[in-house]
Amino acid sequence: MTTSFVEPFLNAIDVEQKADTVFADSYTKSYSPKKLAQLGLAITNLVITSGRTGLGGKSIIEFELDSAVKNGNEIIPGSIRVGDIVKVLKMGNTNEVVKKQKAISNSSKKSETSDAEGSTGSIDGVVIKINANGISITIEDSNFDENSLYNDSSKFWLVKTANSITYKRMISTMKKLREMEDKNDIIKILLGESKYLAKPNSHGKPIKFFNLDLNESQKNAINFAINDSPITIIHGPPGTGKTYTLIELINQLTFNDNERVLVCGPSNISVDTILERLSGTFDMNKKKSKPEQLIRIGHPARLLPGNLRHSLDILSKSGDLDGRKILNDIEKDISTTILKTKKCKNYGERKALWGEVKQLRKELRQKEKKVVSELITGAKVVLSTLHGAGSYELTSLYKDESLNLGKQNPLFDTIIIDEVSQSLEPQCWIPLINHYGFKRLVIAGDNMQLPPTIKSKDIPKQEKPESMKIADLEVTLFDRLVKFHDGNEYKKLLDTQYRMNELIMRFPSEELYEKKLKADQSVKSISLADFDIDGEDTGELIWYDTQGGDFPEQWDDDALGDTGSKYNEMESLIVMKHLRSLLESGVKHEDIGIISPYNAQVSLIKQKLFLEQIEGIEVSTVDGFQGREKQVIIITLVRSNENHEPGFLRDKRRLNVAMTRSKRQLCVIGDIEMLQRSGSKFLTHWGEFVDNGEDYDLRYPDLGDY
């Protein structure tokens, strides 16, 4: 049974990794470093200014623009952000660089990778700081040749790369699952090897809630997870307080039940959002709380600044434990020795000093292991990404015989996975397999919001082996449990939302949530009028219908590759006119968000805002607004064509996110006829809801007015 479950996932991961690699290779093979920099994927003409030892004994290299090309120029980061994985290469012959880059990215050919790295001096690292003056990266591999690097006067360039480590960890996890014999009851339910049975007449102890503002659906979900079931799905539609529910659940489990909890999410921001709020509640309970009771696994560069005090890397170098002082002393010795290498002119002596640095780093890692073990086992809550749940810091503890960890003595009593509907199912198995002694599982999310990003879905079927069974990675753990394993019996819907007024909420509730959502009294009737704002463009629901052919979509010829990015010039004019009207009526810039499913449309509107010198308006794709809210949201749908082809608009989950970000006004610009004739049930219903109902102020723009 387990083999038949695992194999399709292993095949799917393989296909997805190849698609990811092909995408990364396609732009490095197709474009020069200069073009990649223009596209925001690379930074060129860099020189090394310094190197030092950072957290965890990792090397940090600092770059700035070459003085020969500065002339007032600044580093333009493009899409490169703190936390991104990058590859650093020497500037040189573009064709040769591309050829070697391709060799490096082929992770299945280890010897080829080694040769390529040796010949190009390429380095994989993580961006920890970037601004107009410089960029710093930390090096994960302690074996790279620092001696030659720091004494190299070459120019370098760096490019964003695909992360093969995540795929390797998913593959390793699924193989462990395939071989697992002693499964706990929860894993058996997840695999369909056991049927879910509710606890008969369970009477757990009454819960005294810390948060007195919780509604009944939130309290019921918490009580069910603690007292009634070993597995719970908390279904949190937009604005229903899912995070607050999880915070209360964690507080109950740790403060009242003395449990140890592992909290995971698919992204760093999903984990940090919980930690940020959880830290506040722990701080309120000062008698029981210390910073190290909440431990955040992960590179400090990827953490929100406010969460750094809970970083494992940082806590291991600070605080009162004796071992931490020793670590600090070793780090000082490393830094001092590196300084000596820079002053040393003799190659042999310099090489010997670097040997001493490597030996000190080895000692640092050994001493650090004990401190890390004490911190993790002493924490009440450990938070990490799903990928990070399989990190060495955590998994190595099971090899420490003195801790005696295992099924009967678990490291964690409860595992909580947030944003499960944005997670690939193989990712979700990483914490479950690596920490299999857990006795309670809570997964939370909304299967009607953004799904995980799947790059392989665009690969034609004929390119996939017919005999190979491939799992559909767009089907999440949430979806599979509800559809095949009685998930509705242990799914708890949070039914009260605190974001939108009732008019904005009505359509998504009726179409996606079985009419079960209700608006809390505090938001039920809110509008822009509450801010003493009045005008013809300040209503709750406005739709500019662009049917008729005067507002056609257009193709972005400058898009990277065949991305299908489209824009609509005429729609952008409506966006700008409506925006100016709102601002003139007194709506604040920061209260307005503009969303489009298409990057090209986002770029077009940003250009118009820049030209008109309008600042403070957030413009983004749907993905950029997940988990966010604004008083006003303007959506430009872009698609309008003779074939009534909706493209990205077919994804109801994506549109659900867009239409549920607004609190007081939702303004949509789009072709209603195209929606109604698209062949999509959701889009047809949306068009009919707008066309036949009375909620929307339906407008027919005249091109001459723009």
Structural description of this entry:
With 706 residues, the chain is of the alpha/beta class. The chain is built from 23 helices and 23 strands. The strands form 5 sheets. A 7-stranded parallel beta sheet has the order 9-10-8-11-12-7-13, sandwiched between helices. The protein has a 6-stranded antiparallel barrel with strand order 1-2-5-4-3-6. A 6-stranded parallel beta sheet has the order 20-19-21-22-16-23, with helices on one face. Strand 4 and strand 5 form a beta hairpin. The chain is globular.
- Note the beta-strand portion: 15-25%
* Helix amount: 25-40%
Biggest sheet, spatial arrangement of strands: 9-10-8-11-12-7-13
The main pleated sheet reads as:
7 strands, parallel
Q: Please count the helical segments.
A: 23
Cα Rg: 27 Å
Q: Low-confidence segments, ≥5 residues, pLDDT <50?
A: 93-98, 100-120
Assign the structural class, choosing from mainly alpha, mainly beta, alpha/beta, alpha+beta, or little secondary structure.
alpha/beta
Q: Give the oligomeric state.
A: single chain
Mean pLDDT: 86
N→C terminal distance: 63 Å
Backbone shape: globular
The number of E-state strands comes to 23
Please outline what is shown here.
By secondary structure, the protein is α/β, with parallel strands linked by helices. Helix 1 packs antiparallel against helix 7 (164-179) and helix 7 (164-179) crosses helix 16 (425-434).
Descriptive keywords:
six-stranded antiparallel barrel, 23 helices, seven-stranded parallel sheet, 23 strands, 706 residues, alpha/beta, globular, single chain
